[in-house]
Amino acid sequence: MPFRAQAAPVVVPRLVLTEDEWLPRARAHSERVARFAEPFIARRNARKKHPVEDFLFTYYTHKPGQLGRWHPGAGVVLVGEAAAERLGWKHYRALTDAEREAAGVAEGQHAVVLDAEGYLREREETVRFCALILRGTAERPAQFGCFGLHEWAMVYHSEKFGIRHEYLPLRLGAEGTDRVVEENRIRCTHFDAFRFYTPDAAPRNELQPTRETQRVLEQPGCLHANMDLYKWAYKLGPAVPGELLMDCFELAWRVREMDMQASPYDLAEWGYKPIPIETPAGKAAYVEKQRAFAAEAAALRERLTTAIAPLVGVLT
User: What are the backbone angles phi and psi of residue 168, rounded to the nearest 5°?
Assistant: First the structure.
């Protein structure tokens, strides 16, 4: 059922934050983002690349400036002079007189909140899809037998198709890399990894994921599905608290490190020790880390689901 604008605001404010409460959170968020964003911006300006640390800023579409904006989440009222600036931000509005009275906000004080009605009018499809992915992924059993072979499939027959990251050498060379692909079972469930397979590698995958089947194939053991918690968090925009967004970002950052350590690339020059998934010991190390990340991701997935529950409730 499509969303229909209602006479009353969709989300009734449930928490009021004074400047003394929310400004420190906003500053802490900016500092947290800067630790990751500033080195990336410096590299970009110098036209330098980093195979691990650039990924969240180049693969995903959220820009550093957007990431640096802290949001309190749906239903949270920000009070004070500094809050007035947010009336120029997308999806914010001033409290109505009735809301001000209910929230105990003094007359003459600036008070803003997420414009949930306008947000849903514009972002209904996004909210529905994110909720579906989050809920569906959480309900499926985790699979831990992929061993990161998606990265190997992306450079299978590299002498024929080339290497995605041309400035990185292959740790086992082209023939050794091809042999790992050929000697292992490949069963990637994640479309956004599968779509980068070389044409010769794609038929070797036991599944043939598509964008349409993403909602039924995503599973909580997948490294890329867990990295994508960051994507769902920023796509849900100001409805998700900044602290939760950055928790998802930092998990994705660490998952990316492991993903590349288990990849066919030689990252010794960058200070990364390989996880040799072509060996039994390497496979065991991979699964151990994968399980730990899946547990972290499960908690974040639940927090994201809870954060948007009031909005989803309006749509159902």
Answer: -110, 130
- For residue 89, give Cα distances in angstroms to 85, 237, 262: 7, 12, 41
Question: Nearest to residue 202, comparing CAs of 250, 141, 157, 253?
Answer: 157
Three-state DSSP class for residue 83 = helix
Instruction: Find out whether 29 and 23 touch, Cβ atoms under 8 Å.
Output: no
Q: Which residues contact 165 (CB under 8 A, 6 or more apart)?
A: 51, 265
Give residue-wise pLDDT tens across range 158-170.
Answer: 999 888 788 899 9
How many angstroms separate the CA atoms of 207 and 191, rounded?
10
CB count within 10 Å of CB 191 equals 18
**3-class DSSP state of 76:** strand
| Prediction pTM value | 0.94
Q: How far is CA 98 from the centre of its chain?
A: 37
Instruction: Say which amino acid occupies 262.
Output: A
Q: Is 256 exposed, middle or buried (0-12, 13-18, 19+ CB in 10 A)?
A: buried
Q: How many residues does the chain have?
A: 316
Write out the DSSP string of 280-312. HHHHHHHHHHHHHHHHHHHHHHHHHHHHTHHHH
Residue 205 has phi, psi (to 5 degrees) of -75, 130
Task: Quick: pLDDT tens for 250-276.
Answer: 999 999 999 999 999 999 999 999 999
Of the two residues 315 and 124, the one the predictor is more confident about is 124
Q: Please state the domain extents for the chain.
A: 15-123, 136-315
Task: Name 316's Cβ contacts closer than 8 Å, sequence gap at least 6.
Answer: 1
